[in-house]
Amino acid sequence: MLESATPVTPVTFPPAFLWGAATSAYQIEGAVREDGRTPSIWDTFSHTPGKTAGGDTGDVAVDHYHRYRDDVALMKDLGLGAYRFSISWPRVQPTGRGPAVQRGLDFYRRLVDELLAAGIKPAVTLYHWDLPQELEDAGGWPERDTAYRFAEYAQIVGEALGDRVEQWITLNEPWCAAFLGYASGVHAPGRTDPAAALRAAHHLNLAHGLGTVALRSVMPARNSVAISLNTSVVRPLSQSPADLAAARKIDDLSGGIFHGPILHGAYPQTLLEATAPLTDWSFVQDGDLGQIRQPIDAICLNYYTPTVVSAADADSRAPRADGHGASDHSPWPAAEDVAFHQPPGERTEMGWTVDPTGLHELIMRYNREAPGMPLYISENGAAYDDKPGADGTVHDPDRVAYLNGHLTAVRQAIADGADVRGYYLWSLLDNFEWAYGYEKRFGAVYVDYASQQRTPKSSALWYGRAARTGTLPPVDAAE
Predict the structure, then answer these.
(1) Residues 6+ apart with CB under 8 A from 119
(2) Cα(first)–Cα(last) distance of the chain, in Å?
(3) 346 CB burial (10 A radius; 0-12, 13-18, 19+)
(4) Which residues are annotated as a binding site for substrate?
(5) How does residue 265 score in pLDDT terms, banded at 50, 70 and 90?
(6) Cα–Cα distance between 52 and 25 in angstroms, integer?
(7) Which one, 179, 312, 352, 385, has the greatest CB density within 10 A?
(8) 88 phi and psi, to 5 degrees?
């Protein structure tokens, strides 16, 4: 039986919807020893044998520090309206304390000026995991003082750029910083202490609150302050009480531990009870929860794949990093009784299942958590095994289909009442993918790492057309 040839209704976004792409400093900048920059925890971690695939480091990355003008021109050619980038804390404040190094700030001043001249809105993320090594040597995020150091740093950057940058994000994915960095150890600084990871999570929350106040003290009132969360979309394997309890535990550890205090002024009671064998939470001092619950202007959400869990049986209690890298230590404190399952369906090169319904679910969840709050998708994308063809072009139809599906889910969420104001594709460029080194390519733009030549993939051309028209093109439009 032949299918009907009914035309498909175009997926069109509101006129003010922001179309952007995102990167982070250590993944793209390189120039790790230039203009006063000192090592971050990722410099130290990536230079430690066995920590990254192939021993790769971000020493050069994709040399954005020297090629930023070309990269901005590329964004302009594609038709992007916004660019989310992060500030390298040790480039601005090498020891994590004291006055700024103006040469470091000058790089970001030049980048912002270049973006504005190209008609591209800059969005600044203050912390994308590159803690100055000296602060880690003093104890890192498990130590309360690090939150105060972050606030000082936030004020420095806000003073330098707040007159020209309107969109600010305090922290990117504090879950990764706390639990991959201090529990499973697959991210810098590579520690495996679950109690320390819980302290780190609280101090990251405190840093967000203190940093928000610091930014507002030096910036125009029109500026927006937000945080980027990668709350898991947690689905129980079954509706049994044990599986529902397992899902609640992981939801608390991935989402409630952050949005609880940030939005509601309290940690979930179920989280406190589940983690009681590890800590009594006495590091939460009087006034902390009020300090963390600062009014924010938006919530930014990062989404890649859903998480499916069940209660663990005797054969499935081994700690797992659940797609975040190989480790004998779990990133989920006090969750040894939870088993993780690979959802069915097509997978990316990261082994992550492609499921746009999870993005819709995440958006609608935060539409309920914070009614009326503006939302942005600050990261969404996929890694595929991209290779240039004989003619030098790079066709990536799987990524085009991925973006089409997920952007359609965003549009559905808007139709369902969520105030989603923009989308940042992860990532603009192929780059250093943390512990995976240069093995995984998330970029819409292909980078030949030997020559540093940039080649927009089919997905970049497709996404650029969407950005220029506000309507999703046919998935074969870029081929």
Answers:
(1) 76, 81
(2) 29
(3) exposed
(4) 27, 128, 172, 304, 426, 433-434
(5) very high
(6) 18
(7) 179
(8) -80, 110
Strands (E), 181-264: 224-229, 234-236
Q: Is 173 a catalytic residue?
A: yes
User: By the 8 A CB rule, do 440 and 395 touch?
Assistant: no
User: What is the value of pTM for the model shown?
Assistant: 0.96
Contact 79, 468 (CB under 8 A): yes
Q: Are 149 and 97 in contact (CB under 8 A)?
A: yes
Provide the pLDDT confidence category of residue 3 given band limits of 50, 70 and 90. very low
Active-site position among 34, 136, 173, 439: 173
Cis previous bond, 40, omega within 30:
no
Is the Cβ–Cβ distance between 184 and 122 less than 8 Å?
no
Lookup result for tokens 């947690």: 234
Residues 37, 94: contact at Cβ < 8 Å?
Answer: yes
Catalytic residue among 29, 114, 136, 379: 379
Q: What is the DSSP letter of 436?
A: G
Helix (H, G, I), strand (E, B) or coil at 461: helix
* Cα distance between residue 287 and residue 432, in whole Å: 39
- 462 has a pLDDT exceeding 70: yes
| Mean pLDDT to the nearest integer, 112-125 | 98
- Which burial class, exposed, middle or buried, applies to 134 when counting CB atoms under 10 A from its CB (0-12, 13-18, 19+)? middle
pLDDT at 152 over 80: yes
143 labelled catalytic: no
Bridge pairing between strands 420-426 and 445-448: unpaired
Distance separating alpha carbons of residues 304 and 359, to the nearest angstrom: 8
Neighbours of 423 (CB within 10 A): 27
Find the helix or strand (DSSP H, E) in which 362 lies.
helix 356-369
Sign for the pseudo-dihedral over CA of 450, 455, 458, 462: positive
Predicted pLDDT of residue 325: 62
**Beta-bridge partner residues of 420:** 375
Domains of the chain (ranges plus CATH)? Answer: 18-469 (3.20.20.80)
Contact 42, 61 (CB under 8 A): no
Amino acid at 207: A
Write the CB contacts of 173 (distance below 8 Å, at least 6 apart in sequence). 129, 228, 229, 230, 302
Helices 397-415 and 458-469: crossing angle in degrees, nearest 10, is 30
